[in-house]
C-alpha cells in the first residue's frame, strides 16, 4: 500500500510537471513570444551583481593589505575610480541596456492587450501590460528598442515569433493598407 501511494504520487507530480510549463499564465493570455537570450541576460546580470558585491566586501581588505590608504591622493583617486567603475557603473549600464529585453510576451485576444515579462533591477520578473494601440515604433532604428509600449522601450527578436501574424499585429502592420495581402494580390 505504501509503495503504491509513493509511486502514484510521483506519477502525479511528474505528469503535472510535464504538462504545464512554468511559463503558462492564463491570466496573461496565450504565449506568443519567448526570448532566447533570457537565461543569458539573467546570468550576465547575476554575475555582474555578484562581482560588484564581492568588490565592495574586498575593497577594505585590499586597501589595508596593499597600503594604498597611505599613498598619494592621486593613487587613491585612481584606485577608487577603477573599483567604482566595476562595482557600480557596469551593473547599472547592464541594467539600462537589458531592462527592455522581453523574456516572454503574452496576448489576450478578447481585450487586445499584451503582457511583456522583463527582468527588473533586482532580477525578478516584471509584468508590463499594454494595449496594441499603445505600441509606438521608433522613427529611427534603435539598438536596444524594437518598439515602445506607452513610454517603455521593449526589445524583441521578430524571428522568434512562432506565428508571424502575432508580430505583425503587435507592431500594427496588419492595420496598414500597404501590408494587406489581399491588395497585393490584385
From TrEMBL:
Keywords: Membrane, Transmembrane, Transmembrane helix
Cellular component annotations (GO), alphabetically ordered: mitochondrial membrane
Pfam family, one: TMEM70
GO term, biological process aspect, one: mitochondrial proton-transporting ATP synthase complex assembly
Stored InterPro entries: TMEM70 (IPR009724), TMEM70/TMEM186/TMEM223 (IPR045325)
Transmembrane regions listed in the UniProt entry: 46-64, 76-98
PANTHER family associated with the record: TRANSMEMBRANE PROTEIN 70, MITOCHONDRIAL
Family: Belongs to the TMEM70 family.
Protein known as: TMM70 protein
Organism: Erpornis zantholeuca
Organismal lineage: Eukaryota, Metazoa, Chordata, Craniata, Vertebrata
Gene: Tmem70
Amino acid at each position: 500500500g505504501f509503495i503504491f501511494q509513493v509511486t502514484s504520487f510521483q506519477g502525479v507530480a511528474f505528469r503535472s510537471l510535464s504538462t504545464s510549463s512554468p511559463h503558462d499564465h492564463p491570466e496573461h493570455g496565450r504565449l506568443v513570444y519567448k526570448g532566447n537570450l533570457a537565461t543569458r541576460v539573467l546570468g550576465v546580470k547575476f554575475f555582474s551583481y555578484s562581482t560588484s558585491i564581492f568588490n565592495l566586501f574586498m575593497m577594505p581588505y585590499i586597501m589595508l593589505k596593499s597600503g594604498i590608504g597611505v599613498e598619494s591622493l592621486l593613487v587613491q583617486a585612481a584606485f577608487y575610480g577603477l573599483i567604482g567603475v566595476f562595482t557600480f557603473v557596469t551593473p547599472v549600464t547592464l541594467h539600462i541596456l537589458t531592462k527592455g529585453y522581453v523574456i516572454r510576451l503574452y496576448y489576450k485576444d478578447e481585450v487586445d492587450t499584451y503582457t511583456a515579462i522583463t527582468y527588473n533591477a533586482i532580477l525578478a520578473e516584471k509584468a508590463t501590460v499594454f494595449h496594441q494601440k499603445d505600441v509606438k515604433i521608433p522613427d529611427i532604428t534603435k539598438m536596444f528598442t524594437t518598439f515602445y509600449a506607452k513610454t517603455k522601450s521593449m526589445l524583441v527578436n521578430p524571428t522568434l515569433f512562432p506565428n508571424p501574424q502575432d508580430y505583425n499585429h503587435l507592431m500594427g502592420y496588419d492595420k496598414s493598407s500597404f501590408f494587406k495581402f489581399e491588395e497585393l494580390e490584385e
